Amino acid sequence: MVIDGVDVPDTGSPPVDHVGELLQRVTQGDQGAFARLYDLLSPRVFGLILRVLVDRSQSEEVLQEVFLEVWQSAGKFAPNRGQGRSWILTIAHRRAVDRVRSSQASTDRDVKAGFRDMDVPHDRVAEHVELKIEGRRVVRALATLPEAQREALTLAYYGGYSQSEIAALVGAPLGTIKTRMRDGLTRLRTEMGVTT
């Protein structure tokens, strides 16, 4: 049987964690063990990172970061808590996800800076924010309505259906739909604190 690229006789006992053994040697500063570890796992680690990041050059950078971390923190590997291969792949996955988050945060900062630099009148920005806040309030208030009222109002205002179309869609009489919408709007106004 071949495990981690090493031909091992099948003795019926649990397989030896060769990667874990290499990690133990790396802890002692064994550069040869580290080179063997890199040769053994870098293709698999790179494949995992590339699946997360998609970008090849970023994946190559993260691969180097992963193996630098393995060299520096091999002593943190606990053989009684799992296989060496899993430990290294977990580091790789975490690093790749961190890179994705970092890239997203950078993109978000750039977008915000771009909006600041644009000549957008303050009124439009404030209006946009107010509409978003009001939209959240409406969604929360809608959630408090009985299902039938919420369904009718959602179909009308978000779906753009007429009362007749809603009646046909839900299989209820037109008068029932009108009542549901009237009662739902009254309750919605109350929930939102709107007085008329």
From TrEMBL:
Q: Which PROSITE patterns match?
A: SIGMA70_ECF
Asked if the record carries the keyword Transcription regulation, the reply is yes
Q: Name one Pfam family in it.
A: Sigma70_r4_2
Keyword Transcription (UniProt): yes
Q: Which residues belong to any copy of the RNA polymerase sigma factor 70 region 4 type domain? A: 137-188
Give the record's GO biological process terms.
Answer: DNA-templated transcription initiation; response to stress
Domain RNA polymerase sigma-70 region: where?
Answer: 37-104
Q: Name one GO molecular function term.
A: sigma factor activity
- Keywords for this protein: DNA-binding, Sigma factor, Transcription, Transcription regulation
Q: Which family does it belong to?
A: Belongs to the sigma-70 factor family. ECF subfamily.
Cross-referenced PANTHER family: ECF RNA POLYMERASE SIGMA FACTOR SIGK, RNA POLYMERASE ECF-TYPE SIGMA FACTO
Q: What is this protein called?
A: RNA polymerase sigma factor
Recorded source organism is Microbacterium lemovicicum
